[in-house]
Amino acid sequence: MIKEWATVISWQNGLARVSCDVKASCSSCASRAGCGSRVLNKLGPQTEHTITVPSAEPLVAGQKVELGISEGSLLTSAMLVYMTPLFGLFVMAAVFQQLFGSDLAAFAGGVLGGIGGFLVARGLSPKLASREAWQPVIISVGLPPDLLRVETSSSELSQ
Fold this sequence. Notes:
The protein has helices at 36-43, 71-100, 103-129, 154-158; strands at 2-12, 15-21, 48-54, 64-69, 137-141. The chain is an alpha+beta fold.
C-alpha cells in the first residue's frame, strides 16, 4: 500500500476533504544537477491536491490523516496514462507506414495514434476511477491540533 499524510480541511456527513502537499525535489541525491524531477518542480508552481475520502470518524480541520492506496491500482493507472498513447503512437505509425510507404505518413500516423491513445486513456479513466479499489482510504488518524500541547519549563530553556 502506498501511504501519504494529508491535512484535513473539513469533515461533513462522513466525508473528509483533505489536502496533500506536493513534495518538492529532495535535493539529497548525488544527481541533483541532472534530475528531471527537480527541474520540473522549479518550472511549475508548488500546489496542493485536495481530495474527498470517506471517514466514519469525525475529524477537525488541521488534523493529520494517513491515506493509503493499493499499489496495483496506482500501477494500473500509470500504465493506462503512459502506455496507451505510446501504444497508439507505434501501432498507427506502423499502419500508416505500411499503407502509404512514406516517413511523413508514418509521422502523421504516429501523431494521430498518440492523440487517439490519449483520448482512449481519458475515456477509460473515469470508469476505472469509480472502482472501490482505486479510491484512497484513511489508514490512521492523528491527534486533533488543539489536543496536543507541549509546555516547557523555564529551567529547561536556560540549559
